[in-house]
Amino acid sequence: MVEARGRGRGRGAGGTYVASQYDLAYQRHIRIEIVCRAAAVDLIVRTLADAGWTGRRGDGVIFVSAVERIVRIREAGTPAAEMREGAR
């Protein structure tokens, strides 16, 4: 879960949108990122939409995108000592 700030059409939890030439007030949001198998996407989207629905503006947005590659740093990285020896 990541705290995010942004502006949208919704007003947030009782907040107001304030804008001037020099100041923009952003609403606080929570961004949840879930990586899952393609077969589970529809169930997860439906569950999130049902849980988050209030019927009012600002309920949120669900983005679905493909993850083409995942690399674990521990497995793909090269230890610093090996890098120094290889550079000589």
Task: List the topology elements.
Blueprint: E1 2-6, E2 27-31, H1 41-52, H2 73-76, H3 80-87
Antiparallel strand pairs: 1-2
Textual characterization of the structure:
The structure is a single chain. The chain is an alpha+beta fold and 88 residues long. It contains 3 helices and 2 strands. A two-stranded antiparallel ribbon has the order 1-2.
Which features characterize this protein?
single chain; 88 residues; alpha+beta; two-stranded antiparallel sheet; 3 helices; 2 strands; 27% helix
Care to give the gist of this entry?
By secondary structure, this protein is of the alpha+beta class.
Strand content: 5-15%
Structural class given helices, strands, pairing? alpha+beta
Number of helices: 3
Strand order of the largest sheet: 1-2
- Tell me the overall shape: elongated
Task: Summarize model confidence as the mean pLDDT.
Answer: 78
Helix-strand topology string? EEHHH
Q: Helical amount among residues, as a percent range?
A: 25-40%
The tally of strands reads 2
Multimer state: single chain
